[in-house]
Amino acid sequence: VRHTGESMDLALASARHAIGLLGPDELAQLADSALASGIYSPALDELASLRKPVVMADAAPLFEAAIAELGGTIPTASDAAWHVARQHLSEISNGGVSPQAGRTGVS
Fold this sequence. Notes:
Blueprint: H1 10-18, H2 24-36, H3 42-48, H4 56-69, H5 77-93, H6 99-102
Helix pairs in contact: 1-5, 2-3, 2-4, 3-4
């Protein structure tokens, strides 16, 4: 799944989710952004409509179902870590993140 939203693409979001870098509120916000940009799945719609406080027990299964509905998969932790690391290094090399800020790790 390579749909791009306002803040991150769904493949990157899947990777960040797989290694625990996205919280339940971020998953709901990501779903809302995807819907606003024209990406639709029933699970995305349900995830975006969760009432606060959003809990991971509700958000994670809906996010994973949305990824599946859109033809993607949640990567293994190892594959996810590599995907996130490559994205982070790309942001540094493209000037999106300064090398100094990049030393602090993945944000």
